[in-house]
Amino acid sequence: MNNPEQNDVSTALSLLRDSLAEEEQRIRNEGATAMQGGDYDTATAVIDFGKRLLAFQKKVEGLVHEWDELEDLRDKASPAVQEIVSKRFFGKSKKGEITPHEAYCRPLLEVLVEMGGSGKTKIVLDRLGEKMKPVLKPKDYESQESDSKTIRWRNTAQWARNQMANEDGRMRSDSPRGIWEISEKGRKWLREQSGVRSRSNRIEGMESERPRSER
Length: 215
What we know:
Blueprint: H1 9-36, H2 40-76, H3 79-85, H4 102-114, E1 118-120, H5 121-131, H6 152-168, E2 179-181, H7 184-209
Antiparallel strand pairs: 1-2
Helix pairs in contact: 1-2, 1-6, 4-5, 4-6
């Protein structure tokens, strides 16, 4: 009989998405090598395959979003319902017990800027871990249920990187293997976020300075 923890669909989808992103990057690099070498037939075939792979990735993303909605329903259900529906596929971690991958995006881009725009994966992750210490939760430091050698937060950071590189372009998807690099779009996004934060801080400061009777 399979271990119930190995049937956690969220983990399976996460692994599938990460594997597809890595494969897409490998195909992209090898297709570029074929093009540079003048093997245009191979390069064209690789491009066609890459397009189908990207379409499949989008379908997987749709499944991820649908599963997130199911998890939301589970978390809002009564304890009795949660006990029933969580036994096999949902795993043990509820939302809020681990830091979502979206929370990694801004600090990851900030780390890359601090490193001059790019860096080796391990070094970037080490610096990201230090930067995110105030927000990471105890479960983020646990090992992955599907891979005891991988710490959860480092896997989630990889997930965030893949999203920014392969979906919204805030990180470069054509960087050399083992290198993470911010894109110009990512730099622009960071500047915009800094502007929003500055305006928010000014408004909060003005609010705190107003007489209590005027608030």
